[in-house]
Amino acid sequence: AYENFTLAYLLNNVNGPVWVKAVVNITAFLQSVIALHIFVSLMYEYVDTKYGITGSALKIKNLSFSFLLRGGYLTFNTFVSALLPFLGDLMSLTGAISTFPLTFVLANHMYLTAKKDKQSSMQQL
Q: What separation in angstroms does the CA of 94 have from each of 40, 77, 87, 101, 102?
């Protein structure tokens, strides 16, 4: 629709009221943060298990550890991303390659693994 004149960030090509662009940009930002936490939650769970974080997630020790770990991880990723001059193209490529397996294959595999003993072979198929 935009031919060769489109920018890497598609919302820069859209005309309209400033408040609409602001809402769309805020929504895109929140969606990317939420998606990051969903896809990284397995790594967080592994680190919590490895370092023996047990009990309530609201205990000061557990809360501070989680805050430092997740904040450090996001800071590191942001720093590395800022170093890459071609981040938009890299995100497009990795997003295209990883979206299908992460969204469809991994979720189904995790469900089948968790329910393995409770399903018949027909249900698993």
A: 15, 15, 10, 12, 11
CB half-sphere exposure, 98, CA atoms < 13 A: 9
31-50 pLDDT, tens per residue? 877 877 777 878 888 887 88
d(C-alpha 105, C-alpha 103), whole Å: 6
Residue 90 is which amino acid?
L
Q: At what angle do helices 60-83 and 18-50 cross, to 10 degrees?
A: 120
Contacts of 28 (CB under 8 A, 6+ apart): 11
Contacts of 39 (CB under 8 A, 6+ apart): 102
Percent of the chain topping pLDDT 70: 90
Helix (H, G, I), strand (E, B) or coil at 123: helix
- Residue 88 near residue 9, CB atoms below 8 Å: yes
**Distance from C-alpha of 9 to C-alpha of 94, rounded to nearest angstrom:** 16
- Measured CA to CA, the distance from residue 51 to residue 31 in angstroms comes to 29
